[in-house]
Amino acid sequence: MRILIADDQPEVTRSIASICNDRGFDTVCVARGEEAVARVKAEPSGFALVILDYDFGRRRKNGLEAFREIKALVPELPVVFLTGQGTVAIAVEAMTLGAADFLEKDRDFEDNVEIALAKAQRLLAILGENRSLKEENRDLKGQVDFYKEELYRRYSIVGTTLKETLALVEKLAQIPRPVLIRGERGTGKELIAAAIHKASPRRGGPFVTVNCAALAEGLLECELFGQEENCYPGAPFRRGRFEMASRGTLFLDEVGNMPLEFQQKVLRVLEYQQFERVGGTQTIKVDVRIIAATNADLEAEMRRGRFREDLYDRLAFETIRLPPLRERPDDVPMLAAHFLNAISQEITGVTPKEFAPEALETLKTYPWHGNVRELKHYVERLAYRVTESTIRPEHLPPPRLVDAEEDAVGLSLAERTARFRRKLVNRALAEWGRDLDKVASSLGVGRSELEVMIREMGLSAQDTRSPLKRLI
What we know:
The protein is of the alpha/beta class and about 475 residues long. About 45% of the residues lie in helices and about 15% in strands.
């Protein structure tokens, strides 16, 4: 198998080529992104892996630009990014586009190349055999899932309002302490967790996830801690997620739904980094960083005695709060355009389209209870349903409606009140558009007060009647 190495620093290409050759790979080295694209175009099935620098100098195609062209030529070709000026933003963009790994040219560079090649070899073997992971290689699950792009293609960190969040991610990545990510469903909590892992010194280790709400207590214990053979009749031996994540990161999704009785066991593992498998007596010691996420109101759960305060204190060394999409409407056009472009590249037969400006303004007024995930699915449905090249307001079906009371479960009185006020203002704007006097009159407030409310809520008044009025 051959590896294509693209870097404008000869000493770097020589170092990488030497490591690759020691592992039995043949190498082809080029010094520019354009040359890398040309070689892949000339030999679409000629390379098993591309190692691609990010910065080739001024006025030259950078690595991300070259990567887009390479993926368009050979979508399944794994690409590892290199950079001498690595940032979380570059890493997230590269991984969002489908990169297999992201390496900085630091003092551990050669060791990290060795690790990346070892993981790439395992990935290539698995893809070549075209089979799903089985019990005997469960310990590779976290790494392989990463390279199969299941995680980063689920959401995209697109928009302007998350810059502060990304800055916090970059700082937290270097601190080996638990992080609690809070936000409504579909806001991208798992992606933020993965970004912390990939920006941390543990990025060479596994990133393992478990949904705490998806399993009953007994199954969750086996899933997290593992089990010995015949711990119950016919039970096979299995390693737990804590053990699989050793020297890496364990992401506990929906931790607020973890059974109360089980929380004490998890707390003990967090404190001492050791446990016993179900049915076993041997103490297993691990080195795991924990990142947890929840959309539950943990303060309310603690008051009701359904979530342990000491576990909360342990998990919340730092808290990241992800705002719902309705609180950042200016990001909706950028996200919608991104998802529309992505599905046309991903699926043959879905022709490229664009949104009319009026359609994007209409999308900004929708509530998006499912947040980024709901917007993504909504845009993807439009992509294959609309046959014209431009999506206009009349093409927009109503978004999925959610009962306001059902959707407000777990919110405080202030949060419910704010949500209801926003709904009323949205409804009036949809009805009267830019005639703010009529909007204010329908709400029983003065125009100046209405203008303040619109600014605070991040809403916009339309110059035409929005299709949203059909919905509410």
